[in-house]
Amino acid sequence: MTTTSSVFGAVHLGYIVIETNHFTDWRRFGTDAIGMHHDTLSRDLMRFRLDEQECRFLIQRGPAEDVVATGWHIDDHPSFEQIEARIRAHGVPCVEGSAEEAALRGVERLLRFPGPKGITQEIYTTPVQSAEPLRMLASGFVTGDSGMGHVAITSTKPAQLRGYFNTVFDARLTDYIDETISGVRLKIRFLRVNERHHSIAIASVRGLPIDPVRTRVQHLNIQTATLDDVAQSYQRVHELGFDMALSVGRHTNDKELSYYARTPSGFEWEVGWNPVVIDETTWQPTTHQGISIWGHTPLGQTIVDKLDQFRLGARSLTRPEATVPALSGAGIPDA
Q1: CB 3.0–4.6 Å: which of 124, 177, 197, 288 could bond 188 by disulfide?
Q2: Nearest Cα to Cα of residue 137 among 50, 215, 65, 73
């Protein structure tokens, strides 16, 4: 395999690493509200499962209250080595994960390198399958060839983020959404690395170099097996007293029916059902007006919350955003 061949289709979002000091709240949120399988490893480590893979979310104790790493499952060793060669050819350091780090993530081979917004990117080839039966309130989650969901990021440099994921994973543009929220005009770019409509969403404020979100990620998404799973977890989130960010609604572009809860660390968690699957032979990128066909109404947001968002946006002007220039290059501008 040469360094010019594409790895598109061989890449799948595999796991997420979250750092938090709110362990009790995260356990309740993940198991009792969202309905995932939970395993306690130690006082400072726990994992959530969605399927047979040993780890889909690694929760480790620490002050970040944020996503600190994303793990990407690579189908085979040649594709893994292809990605590693690209990164090293651009002069970006790669670090082999230790046996202990790989075991915590439930994988056999692990490589990490710098990613946008300070989120470490990790790739692996072989996930460990757990022999322990799933114990969870949800009937199931959709993973497989599509990966386990998506990550949404806000950025002041969206073209550079597109350039990064194109260089590393041959990510393709699926579509755009233009949206105005509380008077702020947003443009969202949706990138795919396989048949899933998007594994990465990148949102920016149009015309202003600000980032209104404190955390590195704006939200994470997982896909349930049934519509009932969405409805029942929505009810549990309410009953257990966790904050709801957006009510149930349906998106304009991927047609996913979903809601957004607020995690104990502050970023949002989308639980969705039945998004479209991309047909590479016919798909053409388009622009959609607004994020939702119906629903997704903000819940519990006050004028104080909105003022805090503007303060965070203004503060972002004084801090540089990590884009890993060696991999993002000049970026990929919108057509």
Answers
A1: 177
A2: 50
